[in-house]
Amino acid sequence: MVHGEELGLASESKSVAVGDALPHQGGSPGCDGLSSVSLFSSTDKHYRLAKWEQRVVMVVLRICAWCSIAITAGIVVILLSEAAPFFKEVSWRDFLFGTQWVPLFEPRSFGVLPIIWGTLLVSVGACFVSVPFGLGIAIFLSEFARPRTRSFLKPLIELLAGIPSVVFGYFALITITPGLQKIFPNIEVFNAFSASIVVGIMTVPMISSLSDDALRAVPRSLREAGYAMGATSFEVSLRVVLPAAISGVIASIILAFSRAIGETMAVTLAAGATPKLTMNFFESIQTMTAYIVQVSIGDTPHGSIEYHSLFAVALVLFLLTLVMNTIAGWVLKKTQISYN
Amino acid sequence: MNVLSSPSAHLRRRQAIAKWFRRICRFMSYLLVGIVCYLLWDVISDGWHWLSWDFFQNYASRMPAKSGVRAAISGSIWVMAITIIFAVPVGIAAATYLEELMEQSRLKQFISLNIQNLAGVPSIVYGILGLTVFVRFLGFGGSVLSGGLTLGLLILPIIIIATRESLRSVPQTVRQAAMALGATKWQTVRCYVLPTSFSGILTGIILAISRAVGETAPLILVGAVAYIRYVPENPLDAYTTLPIQIYNWVGKPKAEFHELAASGIIVLLSLMFLTNLCAIILRHKKQRTYV
Fold this sequence. Notes:
The complex is a heterodimer of chains A (340) and B (291). Chain A is mainly α and 340 residues long. Chain A folds into 2 domains: 37-88; 92-335, MetI-like (MetI-like fold, Orthogonal Bundle). Chain A contains 13 helices and 2 strands; from the N terminus they run αααββαααααααααα. Chain A has a two-stranded antiparallel sheet. In chain A, a hairpin with a 6-residue loop joins β1 (101-102) and β2 (109-110). The radius of gyration of chain A is 28 Å and the shape is globular. By secondary structure, chain B is mainly α. Chain B folds into 2 domains: 9-50; 55-285, Orthogonal Bundle (MetI-like fold). Chain B is built from 12 helices and no strands.
């Protein structure tokens, strides 16, 4: 009894202390019991209850954390197991090195190169837009912009990253392609050019904000040293700051490229559905993602070879982006210069 | 000759290059903003006159004048509801466990790396996952449930990363104070760390959801149908969403449908703008700041 009273007193004084030192969330259910937990009575009922609660919660939370592993495992297992029937009928050599992609009508041919080529064509084309713009913006924001300009320009460009890709598909097909047709009369309605432009615009925020972070992480003393040597702002930016931040900049470009590879709706709408090996940006092509959409929109019977080809293509896509992202992470980790 | 008073031709050239470099960088920044503003203005001018009360009341139709986004908006709301119910609790729980409760270990590094990689997986691959697991294996078919769960998987890594980031910004002293008073680890997290980082977590969740609202590709794979003439009533009903409806309208040859797509885009973007605005306001209204 005496023990209990003591405990009560102790808990009262503690709850005051908690209220002073910490932002006590009185409203949170179950948090009131906290004040009666005592360090000095490990046999206390409250304490045991709290320990027990923690054990249960830990189990639940651990399961949630394992979810991410389960998702990855799920992706890998599904892609491999569903692509297996496909590779029973088509040898992987024909798949990887074949140059004819005619999956939907006879005579069928499953050479994946044309759609990989289409994907790379659009992604590389996108880099011609996103790298100059992204780097220009990053350098402007980190080196030249006044704080006020920066404070409205940066959120504005980040807002751009939130525009859904189907909207960019609309831009490409309805706004940009008719405009291009006035300049280049021989351009097709579906073409890789407008797709590259919009995918490039989409990936600019990725390059600009990651590179901006990297450039701003370069210490001020390096810039001051450059200016003290009589370098101009151009020389300081390009020969001092950019080389110092190069790992972050390259990582951002690789990530943007990987995003362009996985980009689906804009290229499906704008670039068309004609798999071919061409260097001509004015022609219609097909990307891997566009193929997946094309097949899943049509009524493909479950279990047919087209259905399984979906998984083979997705496997290639998954591996390609995984490799890109891993390289980006590796570049960031291994080549980063530390200034501390 | 005095170097300071009369710059040599070489120096003048270098300075001219620097000046033009600054100008080009500034020009690039404003040019991009200009291009995007032009594109958005083009959408608004195309789609403005279709926006009316009827547009929100009508279902999709073969006749442009009778078309609307009722099924699409209700479908989007249904899908988002399921996505939120699934992804938000799981995401917060996973992030809390990884950031606060798990011991530093190789396993933890592995899970973190895995989550980073998942965030970079193209959305269409999640569509394939949803197609196999939810549509075929669990037999949900092309229903709201399949769509919502698929988008849930898609935004789970984004929520986990954002939540971990905002948990990390809670100062260590808060945890130490609670632990010093005898709170268990879980009590510390639940009563102090989570409430403190609440606004940061909410911001991350809202941004993740606004990404999911605009997502199209995975939903095409898990069987969102474009031509639906009713509002879904339970999680196993067929559905369509706003981005899918837009995709469908853009793909039609008639110009009127393209204008309808523009109106759909206006609705979608204003929806997303509102959610983003909420996120910005919340970010500024951080409940508590520690110095």
